Amino acid sequence: MENYILITGASSGVGRETAVRLSHQHNLIINGRNVERLEETKSLCADHSDVIIWSRDLSEVDELESEFAAWLKERRLPIGSFVHCAGELSMLPLRALNVDAFKHSYAIHVFAPAILVKLLSSRKFNGQNLKSIVFISSNISERGATAFSVYGSSKAALDGLTRNLAMELAPRIRVNSILPGGMATRMTEELIADDAFRRQSEANYPLGMGRAEDIAPVVEFLLSEGAGWITGQSLTVDGGRTINLTDGKRI
Ligand SMILES: NC(=O)c1ccc[n+]([C@@H]2O[C@H](COP(=O)([O-])OP(=O)(O)OC[C@H]3O[C@@H](n4cnc5c(N)ncnc54)[C@H](OP(=O)(O)O)[C@@H]3O)[C@@H](O)[C@H]2O)c1
Questions:
Q1: Known catalytic residue: 106?
Q2: From atom 14 of ligand 1, which residue's Cα is the shortest distance away?
Q3: Each residue of 67-80: pLDDT tens digit?
Q4: Residue 15 alpha carbon to ligand 1 centre in Å
Q5: pTM exceeds 0.85 for this model
Q6: Residue 250 alpha carbon to ligand 1 centre in Å
Q7: Where do the domains of the chain lie?
Q8: What residues flank ligand 1, with Cβ below 6 Å?
Q9: Using the 8-state DSSP alphabet, how is residue 245 labeled?
Q10: How many whole angstroms from 229 Cα to the centroid of ligand 1?
Q11: Contact, 13 vs 185, CB < 8 A?
């Protein structure tokens, strides 16, 4: 249990579930903005695991590289894996689009993970410790939906980052992304509270809507030695939503 796993978005949903699951075998560094919720995640983790809270807003990318570099230098922790779960859903119709909305979404979903990987893969800041990276993308990255231009294109960029980093970092470090479908988490609680939305989703998902618990074991597998020959892949985990052509009706 010497190595640490850095998990962003660990204050709720997929990030929290992943942290709790991985804490049984690994030490963790958990990131989010809300310290109270990060403390709650820590309290749910296995007692024998060392869980360190690194709270920072990842949408503010200008100083991210220098601040994280200083943090790594001060702590000198061997970080073996990186899981980027931090994300923010924005649904913006075309008439409401503006450059700031793109900058904000791309900062969290693309710029921040790229900067974090740059430092974590650097011998100067993390030796040769980093072995595996998993980015949490979304099944929208390969599809299309009204009002999803900002969020969907930023997740598609994250999948592009996955493939390009996988080439640049091979053979030492593997990089993969997971494309979840709709899950009941804090991100979607308002949407799911709407009866019509929930009924439609239930009809569209052959295996039902997802939960954070459906993603955490897949993260664990992609980080493990069992996935040692998998890199540059974007794995859809969405209960069959994106292969469903039955138009919402079950016969
Ligand atoms: N839920 C879904 O239906 C769904 C579907 C497909 C993909 N996803 C993706 O799955 C990932 C996890 O989402 P979730 O469903 O678990 O949602 P969630 O419960 O809302 O979790 C989002 C996490 O991201 C963190 N975060 C958001 N903005 C941040 C920022 N500026 N700086 C640092 N951390 C930030 C939040 O922490 P703080 O609030 O403490 O900052 C929280 O821990 C996201 O990347 C999301 O896009 C979700």
A1: no
A2: 13
A3: 999 999 999 999 99
A4: 8
A5: yes
A6: 31
A7: 4-243
A8: 8-15, 32-34, 37, 57-59, 85-88, 108, 136, 138, 180, 182-183, 185-188, 212
A9: -
A10: 28
A11: yes
